């Protein structure tokens, strides 16, 4: 299937990237079925073999050359690409407001171009995909259909005329429209690594992650001594109501809390997880009935731990009802972590979470104590492993 030169204004260097796909779960047509055209010969392509990545909901996506330019919807998938040494290929992000790049400042030689992100911070329309002319879109097309009113024809048009989609909305598991397979953070990371032909770098990163998580878990207190937590979203400095997240949801945004073995304060209630269709909120009277030991509030990731204490926690301490909560009285109200976290993010968020929940073992969250080797992580990202 050839590109639409009338739309694109002529062939580009990415006319050498062809792909095929299967029909995705839920009836989403994610690409062209059948044989692909032979790739045009270009310098350096003689020893490049086609390879395939299979991922729901796209099905099989076959590449005849390694993608160089890429866009990602969320910070989790963007972070995966950066972890694989692909930062220079970033063209834009679908939701840049939730892509937290400041963690890279602690990794020698690791950075992304903020000017590129700020120039293309909400890549969600077909026109933007054409303009950026990427080789790969790290997007779940199901999300484009259900959040931004794309049709199957829109998805097919962009992957036919620009580049394929590869992605799966995995940060939560509560959306009714997501009726196809989910992936863990590292299962999705491995798919992205295969697309970029960076399996060895992925394996080095995964081994470091496993070692780090094992070291943290070996120091955790017994299960009956771990706190129950209420994870929520409320982005204001003077919170009045809270959108609930359920830890049993198993989405990747809860990975650090599940790895640290905490108990969901909402366990045994009929309160559902925040989703596309469920936007329910709890007030302080509702929270008093639950009275969690720890409250984790999302929506404050541009603040430091100290700034959060001086704003959100300070307000709750002065509130007539909130001040009755034991988490507030004990000062155990913290930032809740990113909605969209990738493998680099997860290392930092797990370190932070361990210090929030178990300061006696891992150090205070406001301290400078580090639980993993930044240089080793940077070396893997920079290809020294």
Structural description of this entry:
The protein has 385 residues and is of the alpha/beta class. A hairpin with a 7-residue loop joins strand 6 (228-233) and strand 7. It has helices spanning 5-8, 75-83, 114-119, 126-132, 141-148, 152-161, 185-195, 199-217, 255-259, 284-290, 305-318, 326-329, 343-357, 359-362, 374-381; strands at 51-55, 59-63, 70-72, 90-93, 136-138, 228-233, 241-245, 263-264, 282-283, 294-298, 333-335. Helix 7 (185-195) runs antiparallel to helix 8, helix 8 runs parallel beside helix 13 (343-357) and helix 8 (199-217) runs antiparallel to helix 15. 34% of the residues lie in helices and 11% in strands. The chain has 15 helices and eleven strands. The protein folds into two domains: 5-167, 3-Layer(aba) Sandwich (Rossmann fold), CATH 3.40.50; 221-366, Nitrogenase molybdenum iron protein domain (Rossmann fold). The chain starts with a helix and ends with a helix.
CATH topology descriptor of the largest domain: Rossmann fold
Radius of gyration: 22 Å
Number of strand elements: 11
Strand residues, percent: 5-15%
- Flag low-confidence runs: 1-46
Structural class: alpha/beta
Query: Mean pLDDT, as a whole number?
Result: 88
Helix amount, in percent? 25-40%
Give the CATH H-level superfamily of the largest domain. Nitrogenase molybdenum iron protein domain
CATH architecture of the largest domain: 3-Layer(aba) Sandwich
| Number of structural units classed as domains | 2
Order of helices and strands: HEEEHEHHEHHHHEEHEEHEHHEHHH
Main beta sheet strand tally, sense and closure? 6 strands, mixed
The CATH class of the largest domain, by name, is Alpha Beta
